């Protein structure tokens, strides 16, 4: 499903009555089936933006359209929105609450209209997709699972509704490299199957490697947007260096200081290996 954001702003009310502007006049479009990353420093408005996209907050001004419909318009079906957009916030394992894993994963299907057997089949699919043995885990308490297992159960609860848009807020924070790679591969497979993915992350390598487009927020404003590679190249050119560089870009900078110049389009490790191979085998020499 496509998303259109028009002149979106949001202000938080403070105890003393003053207003703090968390987002300011943001406009952008996300195509159906896209994989979009959102990056920016802590406090720049990333979480507020995804809360607005999920319909958990209403904007102070501006519009959000999903498939051409204003999700904050009077009469818009909020239940349909919950079935369309799945969102997983930071530390989702802390949101587990049911007495069994099966009940926890099934919670989001409460108003889906599915019958009992259909709900069970959907829960089975979600848990098996996340690598669980359904019969083995269904009656276990989610609170008795390991940290990594809790996170996978939480993700199963999100994907059980089979949302057409999946939003993740720092989903790989705290994961070991193996678990991080597995998660990103899973999200990529969901995207390739047609799900629109929006992922907030501080992990520049993950954003560079997996996303197709990138939104960059700074102090509540959208300061850059476009194809991921192009955005990273522009960020590297910023004089203040506020957003840093990917590891591959840093290596390119170091090599340039040693008189080995590689193309500015190098953003990922894959780019770096290809550029080095081209250079060292003579392909870069006229």
What does the model show?
- The protein has 286 residues and is an alpha/beta fold.
- 38% of the residues lie in helices and 22% in strands.
- The protein has 2 domains: 3-244, P-loop containing nucleotide triphosphate hydrolases (Rossmann fold, 3-Layer(aba) Sandwich), CATH 3.40.50; 245-286, no CATH class.
- It has helices spanning 46-53, 78-84, 101-106, 116-129, 134-137, 147-159, 177-192, 204-210, 228-237, 247-257, 269-280; strands at 3-13, 19-30, 35-39, 61-66, 69-70, 85-88, 165-169, 196-200, 213-218, 221-227.
- The strands form 2 sheets. A 6-stranded mixed β-sheet has the order 6-7-8-3-9-10, sandwiched between helices.
- α4 (116-129) packs across α6.
- 37% of the residues are buried.
SSE map:
Blueprint: E1 3-13, E2 19-30, E3 35-39, H1 46-53, E4 61-66, E5 69-70, H2 78-84, E6 85-88, H3 101-106, H4 116-129, H5 134-137, H6 147-159, E7 165-169, H7 177-192, E8 196-200, H8 204-210, E9 213-218, E10 221-227, H9 228-237, H10 247-257, H11 269-280
Parallel strand pairs: 3-8, 3-9, 6-7, 7-8
Antiparallel strand pairs: 1-2, 1-4, 4-5, 9-10
Helix pairs in contact: 4-6
């Amino acid at each position: 499903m496509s998303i259109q954001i028009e002149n979106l702003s949001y202000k938080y009310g403070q105890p003393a009555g003053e207003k703090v502007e968390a987002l300011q006049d943001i406009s952008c479009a996300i195509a159906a089936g896209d994989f979009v990353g959102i990056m920016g420093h802590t406090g720049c408005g990333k979480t507020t933006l995804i809360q607005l996209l999920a319909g958990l907050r209403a904007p102070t001004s501006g519009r959000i359209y999903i498939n051409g419909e204003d999700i904050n318009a009077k009469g818009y079906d909020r239940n349909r929105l919950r079935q369309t957009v799945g969102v997983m916030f930071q530390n989702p394992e802390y949101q587990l609450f049911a007495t069994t894993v099966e009940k926890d994963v099934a919670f989001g299907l409460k108003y889906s209209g599915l019958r009992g057997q259909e709900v069970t089949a959907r829960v089975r699919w979600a848990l098996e997709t996340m690598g669980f043995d359904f019969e083995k885990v269904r009656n276990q308490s989610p609170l008795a699972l390991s940290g990594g297992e809790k996170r996978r159960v939480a993700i199963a609860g999100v994907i059980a509704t089979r949302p057409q848009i999946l939003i993740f807020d720092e989903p790989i924070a705290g994961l070991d490299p193996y678990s991080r790679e597995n998660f990103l591969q899973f999200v990529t497979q969901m995207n390739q199957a047609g799900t629109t993915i929006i992922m907030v992350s501080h992990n520049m390598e993950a954003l560079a490697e997996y996303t197709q487009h990138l939104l960059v927020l700074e102090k509540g404003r959208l300061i850059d947007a476009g194809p991921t590679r192009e955005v990273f190249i522009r960020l590297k050119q910023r004089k203040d260096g506020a957003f840093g560089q990917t590891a591959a870009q840093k290596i390119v900078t170091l090599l340039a200081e040693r008189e080995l110049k590689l193309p500015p389009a190098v953003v990922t490790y894959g780019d770096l290996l290809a550029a080095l191979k081209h250079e060292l085998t003579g392909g870069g020499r006229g």
